[in-house]
Amino acid sequence: xxxxxxxxxxxxxxxxxxxxxxxxxLWGRLDGKEVTAVPVLGGGMFFAADLxxxxxxxxxxxxxxxxxxxxxxxxxxxxxxxxLPHPENIESRTVxxxxxxxxxxxxxxxxxxIMIEEMGAAEVLCVVLVDKPIRRAVPIEADDxxxxxxxxxxxxxxxxxxxxxxxxxxxxxxxxxDEA
Length: 180
Ligand code: IMP
Ligand code: MG
Hints:
Strand content: 25-35%
Bound molecules: inosinic acid, magnesium ion
Oligomer: single chain
Helix content: 10-25%
Shape: globular
């Protein structure tokens, strides 16, 4: 299968460097706490797998899946969870919510709301591979990120997909406009 026409933003060496630096910053915030890392499926699992292997041993992993539905009767697309972590992995714990990208913010806003309001997390840190602040539509900020993207580019690789494909590209790329 052909690669998409794209421009590499972070190659594998730059990614590893960014992940090492991010993990170094997170150690101080997580050490000594009861931590559960919660990747947002499916895009967040690639970034999460790379990051947690650089974090203190002994953290727990669990998963959330959020899908965004919209139709004629509800034009405002609303994210809804259709897979939740086990309650005992969230209640009274520090939750590290991990996703590939913070774009409009709707996905992580809903995931964070569920962790705190419905499942009783003690604390939630939202950490993403890419932060795209110019697209933000709801009030949520990342607690940390590998990369802040100032332009509105469409990214693929490292978990990010275009129509379900290219998640498995090992580097982070911007699709050429005529490809997207
Ligand atoms: P949100 O807009 O912050 O809720 O992000 C929703 C989802 O949109 C993310 O989890 C990604 O799956 C997807 N998304 C946003 N921007 C991009 C992109 O540049 N490439 C691929 N997927 C994206
Ligand atoms: Mg996603």
